[in-house]
Amino acid sequence: MIEIQTLSAVESHHYFNQIADVYADAFSQTPYFESLGELLVFSGRLPYHARRMGFKCVIARNETDHDRIIGFGYGVASQPDTWWRDQVADKMSRDMADEWLSDCFEFVELAVYPAYQGLGIGGKLHDALLSGVRQRTAVLSTPQVETNALHLYRKRGWNPLLENFNFPGFDMTYCIMGLQLRPT
């Protein structure tokens, strides 16, 4: 049986190394093939995000090995003048940015160890991460290739907002997706 747990920013610090391990294992696989440098950037980005307002983290553990996480997801309340938001807002019309980014939760990362993928854990983490979020919308970026993650997001009602999106310094093309959490 899989247990999903929601962590505060302080509680999540205890799991940073395990989260980085899950991330490295999941994103070193096809189609991501993230380099050691990119994996190290993630390890530095996680503590930065944990200090931001509205940080929320969820982890999945197998009941038989309670000390080891097998998946995670986290996000933050979107704030102006942050790198990701500025990159996305710059490609949106003013009206689109107001609609999607003014009261928004940034769904930053979701990963499950490859050996545990396909068992519904990603969906449980997704749902737990968005449960109780107070923002009106949620946004994310995902590689614009057919992946399990893209299928999960579509199944959960996410819609493309910007396609063929290129972040500076990244070779992969992304899709920016949005989900209405509350009616306007």
What does this protein structure show overall?
The chain is of the alpha+beta class. 35% of the residues lie in helices and 28% in strands. It has helices spanning 9-12, 16-27, 36-50, 83-90, 94-101, 121-130, 148-155, and strands at 2-7, 56-62, 69-77, 104-112, 137-143, 159-165, 174-180. The protein has a 7-stranded mixed sheet with strand order 1-2-3-4-5-7-6. A hairpin with an 8-residue loop joins strand 6 (159-165) and strand 7 (174-180). Helix 2 packs antiparallel against helix 3 (36-50). The protein starts with a strand and ends with a strand.
The count of helical stretches stands at 7
Could you estimate the helical fraction of the residues in percent? 25-40%
SSE run:
EHHHEEHHEHEHEE
- Which strand-content bin applies to the residues? 25-35%
Tell me the major beta sheet: 7 strands, mixed
Oligomeric status: single chain
Outline the low-pLDDT stretches.
Answer: none
How many beta-strand runs? 7
Overall 3D geometry?
A: globular
Secondary-structure-based class equals alpha+beta
Average pLDDT over all residues: 92
Radius of gyration from CA coordinates: 16 Å
Short summary:
By secondary structure, this protein is an alpha+beta fold. It has seven helices and seven strands; from the N terminus they run E-H-H-H-E-E-H-H-E-H-E-H-E-E.
Key words describing this protein structure:
single chain; 7 helices; alpha+beta; 184 residues; 7-stranded mixed β-sheet; 28% strand
Chain-wise SSE layout:
Blueprint: E1 2-7, H1 9-12, H2 16-27, H3 36-50, E2 56-62, E3 69-77, H4 83-90, H5 94-101, E4 104-112, H6 121-130, E5 137-143, H7 148-155, E6 159-165, E7 174-180
Helix pairs in contact: 2-3
